[in-house]
């Protein structure tokens, strides 16, 4: 299947056979848009060959880096996970790891790529958990507009993903666990605990009065908080997809072929009174025909709109100053955004599914980046032109006085609340040292002391709602009679937890049953730590040099 992605891409460039393959538009990752091919011969494409870095003594071009950058973005889309690395760092790490895989002679197969694609959750039917061609089409169409993904690019992304995982698995194989660590984690999971806790309501302090001097002081110390981001106005041409939906048609035979090959995906909504285990019902061709036709026609119309924008850019080439004349010649209107917008704004009058603002912020006044690549949304296709930049700045206090005052009041109350809470915590600690019970130590503050159910570390603590797991993990590893620090609820308030009772689990009877699971957990965590540390140092190990910065200095 994965090799078909690239093959289909080449086939659909031919208008002679386009009609024959329209059937497959809903069946494979067909992406009829390759900006790299369009821009050959332009100054921007020439810049793709500039050397911007070095890894393992070999130069890396701008084009290689941009591919890695796009794939790093795809990684976050397909497999979102928390990371402290920026996209730039992830892109350079990606290049370094792939170079390392090449050095080690690590390879991958087409079958491995096919399996990786079909196992990706975004491409699966949420109900069946199986690979869903229709769903994958929607995902890829979105990625095409958002990231300019090509068909062959999807192949390459998963090929690289497998190579990276193989290298990381070699690193992770060095993880080891000791018997002491197994015992420690066993008790974290199996020891039974009961806690008492108290929430410190925010109304234990009154809202402080804030003077003009306080407002001025807050502004002086937090000017960056009120910074106005850079904004832009651009010119653009728009090619509405709707202009072409009536100019394309699909034969019933074609729709029937799509239906027959994808019948299992056209599931009827179950009746409200249907039994939970009732078998799925599928739509007939007559019931699904309109849905299929709409989707195929939309895709064909989108391709036509992209072709028009492609043709416009082909005419433009390196002569960006002639964009207005070429637009007039092609009967395309040059429009201007109605007001300045920031990079993450939705732009008035623009298809919200198109990454319009993000592309606008890549433009520069010089010819090399005066106009954008084709920017595709669901309903419109655009080409953008540099017009005006409004630099970021810090407004005067007068301009943002009300916001500053509001922030100063909130900060003053938070500060007073935190100070009061710390004082209460200190008094409770002092009373506990004297032998006073937690309940009695809290009594003088007139707070309600609550008691949790018995819990361990094996499953989440559901009560108290909203912060049960915070309480649970704060006390894991505590001895009976220990007090937590101030902890945050989910309502911007503090709570304090006290471990009232702890029952130590029996290692003799409990550990044998849990050993394998605990050991696997420790090794998994250590493997992740090893990989993270290795990735953190991979650029140093690869002798990374930033040639773009070197050139700037020269």
List keywords for this structure.
alpha+beta; 11 strands; 554 residues; disordered N terminus; 49% helix; Triger factor/SurA peptide-binding fold; single chain; 4-stranded antiparallel β-sheet; 3 domains; disordered C terminus; Chitinase A, domain 3
Description:
There is one protein chain. This protein is an alpha+beta fold and 554 residues long. The chain has 3 domains: 2-175 and 529-553, Triger factor/SurA peptide-binding fold; 192-225 and 411-503, Chitinase A, domain 3 (Roll); 228-390, no CATH class. Helix content is 49%, strand content 11%. It has 20 helices and 11 strands. It has helices spanning 2-11, 15-21, 35-38, 43-47, 62-78, 87-104, 110-118, 133-147, 151-172, 179-190, 212-221, 252-262, 285-316, 323-329, 356-360, 401-433, 438-443, 468-475, 507-541, 547-553, and strands spanning 51-55, 58-61, 192-200, 231-240, 335-336, 375-376, 380-390, 450-451, 487-488, 494-503, 545-546. It has a 4-stranded antiparallel β-sheet with strand order 8-3-10-9. A 4-stranded antiparallel β-sheet has the order 5-4-7-6. It has a 3-stranded antiparallel β-sheet with strand order 2-1-11. The two termini are 49 Å apart.
């Amino acid at each position: 299947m994965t090799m078909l992605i690239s093959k289909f891409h080449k086939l659909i460039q031919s208008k002679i056979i386009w009609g024959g393959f329209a059937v497959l538009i809903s069946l494979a990752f067909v992406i009829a848009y390759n900006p790299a091919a369009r821009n050959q011969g332009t100054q921007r494409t020439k810049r793709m060959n500039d050397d911007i870095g070095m890894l393992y003594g070999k130069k890396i071009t701008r084009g290689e880096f941009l591919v890695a950058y796009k794939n790093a973005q795809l990684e976050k889309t397909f497999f979102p996970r928390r990371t402290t690395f920026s996209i730039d760092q992830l892109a350079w790490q990606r290049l370094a790891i792939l170079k390392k895989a090449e050095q080690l002679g690590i390879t991958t197969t087409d079958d491995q790529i096919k399996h990786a694609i079909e196992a990706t959750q975004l491409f699966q039917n949420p109900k069946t958990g199986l690979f869903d061609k229709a769903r994958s089409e929607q995902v890829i169409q979105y990625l095409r507009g958002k990231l300019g993904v090509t068909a062959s690019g999807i192949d390459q992304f998963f090929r690289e993903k497998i190579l990276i995982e193989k290298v990381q698995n070699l690193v992770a194989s060095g993880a080891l666990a000791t018997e002491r660590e197994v015992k420690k984690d066993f008790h974290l999971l199996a020891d039974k605990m009961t806690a008492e806790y108290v929430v410190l309501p925010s109304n234990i302090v009154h809202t402080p009065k804030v003077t003009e001097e306080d407002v001025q002081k807050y502004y002086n110390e937090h000017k960056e908080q009120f910074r106005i981001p850079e904004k832009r106005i651009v010119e653009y041409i728009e090619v509405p997809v709707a202009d072409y939906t009536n100019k394309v048609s699909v034969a019933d035979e074609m729709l029937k072929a799509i239906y027959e090959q994808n019948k299992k995906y056209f599931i009827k909504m179950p009746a409200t009174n249907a039994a939970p285990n009732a078998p799925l019902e599928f739509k007939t061709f007559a019931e699904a025909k309109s849905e299929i036709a709409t989707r195929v026609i939309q895709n064909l119309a989108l391709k036509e709109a992209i072709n028009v924008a492609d043709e416009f850019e082909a005419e433009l080439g390196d002569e960006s100053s002639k964009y207005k004349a070429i637009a007039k010649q092609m009967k395309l209107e040059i429009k201007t955004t109605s007001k300045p917008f920031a990079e993450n704004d939705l732009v008035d009058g623009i298809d919200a599914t198109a990454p319009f603002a993000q592309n606008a912020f890549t433009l520069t006044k010089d010819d090399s980046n005066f106009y954008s690549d084709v920017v595709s949304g669901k309903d419109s296709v655009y080409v953008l032109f540099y017009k005006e930049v409004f630099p970021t700045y810090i407004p005067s206090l007068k301009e943002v006085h009300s916001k500053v005052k509001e922030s100063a009041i909130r900060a003053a109350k938070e500060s007073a609340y935190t100070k009061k809470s710390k004082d209460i915590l200190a008094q409770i600690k002092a009373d506990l040292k004297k032998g006073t019970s937690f309940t009695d130590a809290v009594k003088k503050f007139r707070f309600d002391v609550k008691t949790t159910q018995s819990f361990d570390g094996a499953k989440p603590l559901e009560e108290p709602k909203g912060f049960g797991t915070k309480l649970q993990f704060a006390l894991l590893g505590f001895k009976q009679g220990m007090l937590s620090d101030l902890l945050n609820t989910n309502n911007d308030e503090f709570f304090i937890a006290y471990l009232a009772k702890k029952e130590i689990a029996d290692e003799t009877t409990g550990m044998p049953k849990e050993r394998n699971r605990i050991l696997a957990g420790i090794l998994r965590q250590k493997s992740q730590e090893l990989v993270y540390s290795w990735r953190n140092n991979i650029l140093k190990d690869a002798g990374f040099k930033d040639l773009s910065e070197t050139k700037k200095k020269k």
